[in-house]
Amino acid sequence: xxxxxxxxxxxxxxxxxxxxxxxxxxxxxxxxxxxxxxxxxxxxxxxxxxxxxxxxxxxxxxxxxxxxxxxxxxxxxxxxxxxxxxxxxxxxxxxxxxxxxxxxxxxxxxxxxxxxxxxxxxxxxxxxxxxxxxxxxxxxxxxxxxxxxxxxxxxxxxxxxxxxxxxxxxxxxxxxxxxxxxxxxxxxxxxxxxxxxxxxxxxxxxxxxxxx
Length: 212
Prior knowledge:
Blueprint: H1 4-10, E1 17-21, H2 27-34, E2 40-45, H3 48-60, E3 67-71, E4 85-92, H4 93-101, E5 111-118, H5 120-129, E6 132-142, E7 145-154, H6 163-167, H7 176-191, H8 198-210
Parallel strand pairs: 1-2, 1-4, 2-3, 4-5
Antiparallel strand pairs: 5-7, 6-7
Helix pairs in contact: 4-5
């Protein structure tokens, strides 16, 4: 069974050929194919060790004809033909930015699903500034932590995001989990002495106003 984070990612899949970057025992590709959410998948990782574990799981579930493993640094060695969805989950926001910056093919028509473990605000800022649109974002509680799961599409429209877009994304702040995520973000900002500079204090004030 998938953990809540990966289940949320699975729920945002739109097409029939998914690419899972940083696959963990190929849990997500196996789940998607077994449950007929996707017809085929690529299970990708930068290291051979995780791919060996993925291969065992794929063979165990008799899905070798539908799930192919790819040794790749991010998306650099991934063959893009036919891919409908790319999932990048369980990494820091900075690592995800690196993967997107080094991607050698166009992401324009691909459904992108991101689940950053840390620095989600950096990822959102980069996305807005580089022509990507966050179509949907949800908060997923998992083992006493709150995680953001994003559905993203390239639009070509670059913008300078507001503070709320950077730190809260497209969370529904009227919904319980979304509000809890926003409140958690504010707590972390205050703990980090983020308000030390006047302009940063103003950012926190604006974020607090969004929750009132």
